[in-house]
Every structure is written in structure tokens, then in C-alpha cells.
Design brief:
Thrombin, subunit H, elongated, alpha+beta, 116 residues
């Protein structure tokens, strides 16, 4: 279910250079599109599906997993959500959410909220 939801997210075309760490090996990659939960990376020798990786971008590290690979590219699901705008601006920092306070409502209040 996670993959399906991720693919539904809008992708933004980017051109961001990064270093991919695969265990003790590194590779230069170019991120060509991004969403808040994943990126498309072009790389000379993409790692196999399921491989845990780290992307280093401007001193920031994004952890993820290869979800698919092609001849010279791979799709990477990120462990934490990112701000695509920050990625484009060179900040590449993960988003941190504050937990929403639970609200207790009765069935009638929920119904009214659904009606608008």
C-alpha cells in the first residue's frame, strides 16, 4: 500500500547532484524528479531493488530504499518526507511534523463536518 500512495504524489522535475552511499561504496547521481516521499536518480550502475541507500546532498543525508531500477536510473523511496521546494533551493532538509491534538467529536458533529 505504501508504494501505491507514494506514486500518487505529484512529481517535480529537478536537476540536483548528489552522492549515493550503498554500504561502503559511493556513486555520483543526479536527481531528476522528486516528491515529498521519493526521488528518481540517474546513476551509472543502479543498485538492486530493496537496497538501503543514503543520499548526501549539500551536507544533508536522506535515507531511503531502492524500489525499482532500470539501465541507468532507479526510483528511491525516502524514509522521511522532504520539502521538494527546499531540495530545489539546496536545503534538502526533512520535514518535521508536530502531532495534531486529538479531537473528540460525537457522531452528529462528524456528520455536520462532512456536509461542509
Amino acid at each position: 500500500m505504501f508504494i501505491h500512495r507514494q506514486r500518487m504524489l505529484a512529481r517535480t522535475v529537478v536537476a540536483v547532484n548528489a552522492t549515493m552511499r550503498i554500504g561502503n561504496r559511493t556513486a555520483d547521481v543526479t536527481l531528476t524528479n522528486a516528491s515529498s516521499r521519493g526521488v528518481l536518480a540517474t546513476v551509472e550502475a543502479p543498485p538492486p531493488r530493496g537496497t538501503a541507500i543514503e543520499l548526501e546532498i549539500g551536507g544533508h543525508v536522506l535515507k531511503g530504499q531502492v524500489r525499482w531500477r532500470g539501465a541507468d536510473r532507479c526510483g528511491i523511496a525516502l524514509r522521511n518526507e522532504i520539502s521538494v521546494a527546499d531540495l530545489i533551493e539546496g536545503k534538502a532538509v526533512p520535514i518535521h511534523y508536530v502531532a495534531e491534538r486529538p479531537v473528540r467529536r460525537g457522531p452528529l458533529e462528524i456528520f455536520r463536518a462532512m456536509l461542509g
